[in-house]
Amino acid sequence: MFTHKPHDSEHETEQDAREQTLASKSREQSGAGGVVFWVALSVFCVMAAVLACGIGKVIHARAAQQNGRTMDALSPDNPAASSVSANNLSGQTQSFPAPPPEADDAQDVANLHAREDLLLDNYSWADQSQGKVRIPIERAMELLAQRGLKVAPQAAEAPLMTGDGKPAAAAPLTNGFARTGYEQEPSGRSF
Description:
There is one protein chain. The chain is mostly helical. Helices cover 56% and strands 4% of the residues. The protein is built from five helices and two strands.
């Protein structure tokens, strides 16, 4: 049988005092941990900066050694160095050819469509050694309409659910080939 004992007030105050002591110690430890974290982070950042600076100086010294000159000879305070570096720079830039002019992207797309039209609208060899010929797309569609395609047997249709109707195919929105805006502009150009 369960019996209820009255609370001991001295025991409760002692337990509260222990909890407060533990809470204050954990706050002190978390504060000390935060300080240690920030000090360690600062030391790490300083060491990383010193290391990066040292690596940069080593790379710079090796590059100057490979080029056969020191940075003092090319300093901006040295008037002879500025003329030497200007002559050197002009010599280096003259040795490279100018890049070819880039064609207009819209013109490239138009040329691509013109080549596609040639393949779609004319007869041409697909593989002359095997006797394969490309035929115009209109003729290919006529042949398909006459001969038809092999159709796989249809799977058994599931019964329609209540409220469902049999789907009907609508006319396609396009003929499958859309011109870009650039090609639709009347310009009088021929491709």
